[in-house]
Write a structure and sequence with these properties.
Length: about 220
Amino acid sequence: MKKMFLFLAIAGISMCSYAQSEKYVKAMEKLVPAVDTTHSVEGLLDLSAAFERIANAEKTQWLPYYYAALCQVNLGNMYFAQGQADKIDPLMDKAEPLLTKAEELEKNNTEIFCLKKMYNSGRMMVDPVSRYMSYGIEAADALKTAKSLNPENPRVYLLEGQDKFYTPEQYGGSKSEAKKLFEEAKKKFENFKPADTISPTWGMGQLNYFLSLQKGQE
C-alpha cells in the first residue's frame, strides 16, 4: 500500500511538472516570434518585461532570461542607429544581470555567446574610442567562442558581417567581406534547424536588410 501511495505521489508530481512545462512552452511560443518583428521602443520594453515575468516564474529556464536581455540589447542598437548613444548604458545595465542568469543556467551555449557579443558591442558603441580595449575585445572574444561552439549558427556570420560592414576600412572593415559573410549567413539560415519551437531563430530580417543595402550599392 505504501508503494502504491509513493507511486501515485511521484506520478502526481510528474503530471504537475508536465503541465507547468506545457504552460511555459505555450507562453513562450506566443512571444518568441515577436523578437524578430518588434521595432519600437514601447514594443521592445513590453516584450522584455513579458519574458522577464516568465523567467521569474520559471527560474530554471534560461531562454526567458536570454530573450529579455536580447530585447534590451536590440533597443540599444535602435537608439544607436538613431544617434542616441547616451540612452544605451541604462539598457545594458538592465540586460547584464539577465544575461548573467541565462549563462548560469546554460553553460557553453552559442546563442548566449552571440548575445554576449552584442551586449559588449552595445557598451562599446557609447564611446568607441575609450571603450574598445575593454568592451570591443570582449565582444570579439565572445563571437569567437560562439563560432567555436557551433560553426553552423547563422547568427554568428550575421554578427561578423555587421562588424565588417560598420567598421571603417582603415580599422579592418570591408563592405565586400561583409557581403561574403552575409551570404554565408543566408546559407546557414537556410539549413538551420532550431532545437524546438522556442529556441532562437531571429536574424533573417536583419540579414535581408543588409543584403538589400548591398544590392542597392552594386
